[in-house]
Amino acid sequence: MADGGADQILAGLDPEQREAAAAVRGPVCILAGAGTGKTRAITHRIAYAVRSGAVEPNQLLAVTFTARAAGELRTRLRTLGAHGVQARTFHAAALRQLQYFAPRVLGGGMPDVVDNQLRLVGNAAARLRMRVDRTELRDLTGEIDWAKAVLATPKSYPARARAASRETTSTPETIAKLYAEYEATKTRSGQIDFSDLLLIMAAAMEEHPDVAEQIRSQYRHFVVDEYQDVSPLQQRLLDAWLGDRTDLCVVGDANQTIYSFAGATPEHLLGFRRRFPDAVLVRLHRDYRSTPQVVELANRLVGGGESGVTLVGQRDEGPIPTFAEFDDEPAEAADVAARCKALVAAGTPAAEIAILFRINAQSEVYEAALTREGVPYVLRGGERFFDRAEVREARLLLRGAARSGEVGDDALPDAVRGVLGSLGWYPDNAPPGGAARERWESLAALVTLADDLLATVPDATLETFVGELDQRANAQHAPTVQGVTLASLHSAKGLEWDAVFLVGLTDTTVPYQHATTPEQIAEERRLLYVGITRARERLALSWALARSPGQRRGRKASRFLDGLRPVTGARVSPKRAKSPRPEAADAELFGRLREWRKLQATAQSVPPYVVFSDATLVAIADARPKSRAGLGQISGVGPTKLTRYADPVLAVLAGADPAAVDPVEVVT
pLDDT digit string (tens) for 147-171? Predict the structure, then answer.
């Protein structure tokens, strides 16, 4: 029976939101750009469907990806008078169903759901006699999760991983064996993981018609939020829930697909009209979050994108986004910290300011700069730099080495590298990505700090360095609850601030240097789009031409900024103005060096990082040495590698085709 207040639900919606809300029966596809009020649209749609009598509240299931988002949906629906509607995550819904149907589909009670996946993966690795540390264990666990999300079995995983250009620390075949052993370990212990919840319930409905009928009689209408993030596994469960019915409403933005590393794909959203030709299609394009200036920049970055949604700013005019280039990362961080301090002094709450970066290891220089300026901060999506396990462990070892005098007369940076070597850190073995890469970058940052300290204090010892680290760590113990947010671009999705600083926008960071395929590059562009659209009023984009003071300023601004930033007008330091930027494309040279390294590694049957790490190749591309002596001055090029690889590397630097440089025969 219709509710007399149903029409009031539609009051206050813009024309597109109203069109979406009034389409109470599926199939419906809502393409919602950033800041366009998608949650408002779908909650009002659900409330209108319930209060108009078109849908029974207990027969509608709204699905999203986080418990926080599901809770927000429930709260808004209660406020709108739509009582009785279920709003859950995919996993929560599947768990609830399996708890009820377990005796029927499993022939017994509900299995235990794994609460420590790392432990089981670690046990499986031990049985295979694989020696992995906790960081690599996290990456391997994530890889198994990805495999299950894309419906890859242990047998099909290697081919799927190669097709997706997965960057892993172990070979696909090794990971496939671990995946199989992990599944066997779960079976022996009578446990299942969260992916199994979805797999089991999808299979149960496919194989047990009575189970499918009972669930489909309960839930007749479905709404899926953030549909661009649905994985093949989640889509399989959704298809099982839906059956041959079409009462499905999805909402999403393909321009914000940034989780493909976890199995997400926008193909289901973009192909919705192909599957349901009669679907109602609504595009939400009125951006209520950001100023027209921020919206314009976002549009120029992606155009309409795959969703075909060009944003139209609805707010009053605001400041034009700024672009700034700096000599080095500390200079960039110092400027950003000073601007944060000025904003706070002018009345912007610190909690309404964010500094966003591509990888967590970039946070340290901003933590230090904000501390020097006396600006409190909060690190989101990860531990503060000095609270990270690997940094705490490194500080303990460095303190012990300083007290014992075991490093002798080694120069400070060499002493630090030697101590970090006991943690398995070496300049030449940077992992390709994931938690292992983050750990490597954190320890590499300590080496950079040692280099910086030696540049300012020529007689600095390891004991001096330990004292410097203690001071930095102690300065960051002040309360930071109401501080400036430091966050990676991935962890910033779904959030917004009055002022946003997008930092470190160089061409080997955004896009990240391991993004090589067109699909990966496109996702990196979307990641920058997400960062831009977090800003309500003020937006600043910046990059540094070198990592540390005194290094050659050979980095390039992100290619994504081409056509966005003004040709002139970027702030350039006086030192920079005296030294024109070289016209040579360092990113292109880095690519040729990687191509040579791949050929050399293949000839040796070793992983590429055994030849040279990416960090070393970047340093070589930056420095462009012309002699063996110059090459030997670069961090990561030790005497052995100089002897082995100097000739081919210098040939590539001189312009030789990597494929024409014969691999060096290495005798072990």
Answer: 999 999 999 999 999 988 888 878 9
The b/e string for 233-266 (b: 16+ C-beta within 10 A; e otherwise) is bbbbbbbbbbeeeebbbbbbbbbbbbbbbebbbb
Kindly calculate the radius of gyration of the chain based on its CA atoms and give it in whole angstroms: 27
571 DSSP 8-state letter: B
> How many other C-beta atoms lie within 10 A of the C-beta of residue 14?
17
Is residue 445 within 8 Å of residue 364, measured between CB atoms?
yes
* Nearest residue to 323 via CA among 561, 512, 72: 561
Among the listed residues 519, 512, 489, the one whose alpha carbon sits nearest the alpha carbon of residue 354: 489
Q: Is the pLDDT of residue 576 over 80?
A: no
Given a cut of 80, is residue 570 above it in pLDDT? no
For residue 481, pLDDT beyond 50: no
Cβ burial of 474 (10 Å; 0-12, 13-18, 19+) is: exposed
Distance (Å, whole) CA 490 – CA 527:
7
Contact status, residue 438 vs residue 488, Cβ threshold 8 Å:
no
**Surface-to-core class of residue 123, CB atoms within 10 Å of its CB (0-12 exposed, 13-18 middle, 19+ buried):** middle
Instruction: Give backbone dihedrals phi and psi of 29, rounded to 5 degrees, phi first.
Output: -125, 120
Distance CA 519, CA 580 (A): 34
Q: How far apart are CA 501 and CA 43, in angstroms?
A: 32
**Other CB atoms within 10 A of residue 405 CB:** 11
- Cis bond before residue 27 (omega within 30° of 0): yes
Give the tens place of pLDDT for each residue, 604-631. Answer: 877 676 788 766 787 788 778 888 888 8
Q: Which of 93, 23, 33 is nearest to 283 (CA)?
A: 33
pLDDT tens figures, 291-329 = 999 999 999 998 766 667 888 898 999 999 999 999 999
Is residue 503 predicted with pLDDT exceeding 50? yes
Question: What's the whole-model pTM score?
Answer: 0.70
Peptide bond into 625 cis (omega under 30): no
Best CA proximity match to 195, nearest among 103, 91, 123: 91
- By the 10 Å C-beta count (0-12 exposed, 13-18 middle, 19+ buried), 481 is classed as exposed
Report how far residue 532's alpha carbon sits from residue 560's, in angstroms, rounded to the nearest whole number.
12
The mean per-residue pLDDT over the stretch 136-142 comes to 89
Question: Which of 319-323, 337-341, 432-436, 535-539 is the least confident region?
Answer: 432-436
Q: Can you tell me the distance from the alpha carbon of 499 to that of 536, in angstroms, rounded to the nearest whole number?
A: 7
